[in-house]
Every structure is written in C-alpha cells, then in structure tokens.
From TrEMBL:
GO terms for biological process: lipid biosynthetic process; methylation. Pfam families: CMAS (PF02353). It comes from the Bacteria. PANTHER family: CYCLOPROPANE-FATTY-ACYL-PHOSPHOLIPID SYNTHASE. InterPro entries: CFA/CMAS, CMAS, SAM-dependent_MTases_sf. The keyword Heme does not apply. This is Cyclopropane-fatty-acyl-phospholipid synthase. Keywords: Lipid metabolism, Methyltransferase, S-adenosyl-L-methionine, Transferase.
Length: 298
C-alpha cells in the first residue's frame, strides 16, 4: 500500500500553471533550495545558485566531473524531477550520458517536452512502480522526499514507508553506485502541529509531511551507507526570500494568471516557510549515500 502523496494531490499544486511558476522561479524552473555558498540572497544570483546545487548533487551521486570520461556511459535517475532542471544540467554539462526523470505532474512532463534533450526523458510515473530495463549508475532526488509519506500516515507506518523508498533505490542502482538526497526535515520542532505546519503540509502541499533525520538514517541503513550529511537552513531561507521578491515584482502578471487570492496564498506560504527556516524549526539536508552491495537484512 502506498503512503505517498497521490497524483491528484501533486497536480493540485504543481499543475497550477507553468507560466505562473516561470514568473518567480529561475530560468531552469528549479523548485527547491539553491546552493548559495555563503553569498547573500540576490535575485540576480538565483540561476547560478541553482546550477551550483545541481553540480553538488551530481558530485554526491558519484557522477564523473565535467571533463571526466565515461566510456561505458553514465545513466542518471532523477526521482521527483520537476520541470527537468537537473536533467538539462546533467546532460548539458556532459556529466552524464543519459538521464531519466520521474514526476507525477503532467504539466511538468509537458514542459520538459518543450525543452527536450537527446538522451533525456521524463516519465509521469512514481518511483514505487518504476522498472527500468537496466540499473542506473546514480540516483538524485531533490525536494521530493517530502511527498513520500503523507501527514495522515499512522506513526507506526512511517518507518516502513520511508524504508520502502531506500529498498526500491537499492534495486534501481548498479553495485557500487552512489545516490544523493535533498529534503526538508523537521529540526527544532517535533511534527506538523501548529498552524504554519498545517497550512503548508495540509493546504499548500496536500498529502505531504516532513521526515526527521533519524527517520532517514534508520530507513536507509539496511541498503545504503551514509557518506555525507550537511544541513543548510540558510540556503532555503535565502531561496524563499528571492522567490518572494520575484513573485512580488511580478504581482500584476501573477494575479492575471492565478487570481489575487492564489497570489496572496503563495506570498503567505513563501514568507511562512522562510520564517520556519530562519528560526530553525526545519532545515534542509543534502545527503550522499553509497549502495551497500551486501544489504544488512534485519
Ligand atoms: C518540489 S518539486 C522538486 C522538483 C525538482 N527536483 C526541483 O528541484 O526543481 C517535487 C517533485 O516531486 C515529484 N514527486 C512527488 N511524489 C513523487 C513520486 N511518488 N514519484 C515521482 N515523483 C514524485 C513531483 O511530481 C515534483 O516533480
């Protein structure tokens, strides 16, 4: 039984309007925290900070460098690929030779269809059912893990639901492969309680919730060793402040596309999330994993 956000819940958020998201995301249509590397949040720097984030994740996932060679090819899977920013980055920089993205959003899938790349493809399919013909060399997943358990999943089912993600990734990867994960997680608070949590994980992103680091560590343990964990609440606070500034600057067009109520709702959501990271109630993790070729069956 699936404990993930359903396709209709995903589409209620991500299929709102590609042209609306294009007003305030950067040109790569990346909808997750950028990597600012200590620089100040600046709308003019958002696109570069998003590419830097993609670069870091390809490092964590063991992709060859820009000048690296991959005589046998290097096949990447992006779980929760959004509008395809990572796939374009990975193929355009030559760090991979083929890239497949999974999303549950048909609007995102059709956006990628208008910005295609040779050897790149996006499927409207969940990781829960994805069965490639051959295993991948690496997996990245950025900003999607928040959808892999719902807020109303019973507490005793959460561990099994998260574990099933890592079990599936283990099957999807070749021996010796690495994988990266970027996810928001609760840090200073225990769970979804409180009006901000309920608004964001119930109303803005229906059917989603956040993990805690200890849940990720326990869920992956049989299948992956953790190679690196870093915590970046400032990266998300800065990204959200830039998105807010860009959305505010585009207010007239935004209201024309989605109406004044939806515009206001998004302004509140972006500001509320920024405050959540600034007070460290939640953080952003970037985690590198290495596949255990002999899983520790428990
Ligand atoms: C916040 S977006 C992040 C998109 C992209 N990684 C980025 O950084 O711009 C979350 C993505 O996860 C996808 N997603 C959620 N649940 C999924 C599932 N079970 N299988 C595949 N994709 C899923 C959504 O469709 C969406 O594309």
């Amino acid at each position: 039984m699936s404990h993930s956000t359903s396709q209709s819940q995903i589409e209620s958020h991500y299929d709102l309007s590609n042209s609306y998201y294009a007003l305030w995301l950067d040109e790569s249509m990346t909808y997750s925290a950028a990597l600012w590397g200590g620089t100040e949040a600046d709308p003019a720097g958002l696109a570069d900070a998003q590419q830097a984030k993609y670069h870091r994740h390809l490092d964590l996932a063991g992709a060859p460098g820009i000048d690296g060679s991959h005589p046998d090819g290097f096949r990447l899977l992006d779980i929760g690929c959004g509008w395809g920013g990572m796939i374009r980055h990975a193929l355009d920089t030559g760090r991979v030779t083929a890239a497949t993205g999974l999303t549950l959003s048909r609007a995102q899938h059709s956006y990628f269809g208008a910005t295609p790349r040779p050897n790149g493809k996006v499927l409207v399919e969940s990781w829960e059912t994805h069965q490639p013909e051959q295993p991948y060399d690496a997996i990245v997943s950025i900003g999607a893990f928040e959808h892999f358990v719902t807020a109303d999943t019973a507490p005793e089912k959460r561990a099994g639901a998260y574990e099933s993600y890592f079990r599936r990734c283990h099957r999807l990867l070749r021996p010796g492969a690495s994988m990266s994960l970027q996810t928001i997680a609760y840090d200073g608070v225990a769970g979804t309680s409180g009006p901000v949590g309920a608004f964001v994980t119930g109303d803005i992103f229906p059917g989603s919730t956040l993990p805690r680091l200890v849940e990720i560590a326990a869920a992956c343990d049989a299948y992956f060793s953790v190679e690196q964990v870093t915590s970046h609440p400032d990266d998300y606070a800065k990204t959200l402040s830039v998105w807010s500034a860009r959305l505010t600057a585009a207010r007239a067009q935004a209201e024309e596309i989605v109406g004044p109520d939806e515009y206001r709702r998004y302004r509140v959501y972006l500001k509320a999330c920024e405050a959540t990271f600034r007070r460290r109630a939640a953080t952003l993790y970037r985690i590198g994993f290495r596949r255990r070729d002999e899983p520790l069956f428990r």
